[in-house]
Amino acid sequence: MPHATDRPANLLPGAMLGVFGSGQLGRMFALAAHELGFRVHVFSPEADSPAGLIAEQETIADYDDRRAVEEFARAVDVVTLEFENVPVVALETAAAFVPVRPGPYALQMVQDRLREKEFLRDISVACAPFAAVDSLAEFRAAIEQVGLPAVLKTRRMGYDGKGQAAIHDSDDAEPAWRQVDAVPCVLEQFVDLRREVSVLIARGLDGARAYYGPIANEHSNHILDVSVLPAPCGEATARQAVDVANRIADALEVVGIVCIEFFETTGGELLVNEIAPRPHNSGHLTIDACITSQFEQQVRAICGLPLGATDPLRPAAMANLLGDLWQAGEPAWHRALAMSGVRLHLYGKRDPRPGRKMGHLTALADSPTEAAALARAARNALTS
Ligand code: AMP
Question: In this structure, which residue's CA is closest to atom 23 in ligand 1?
Answer without folding.
Answer: 190
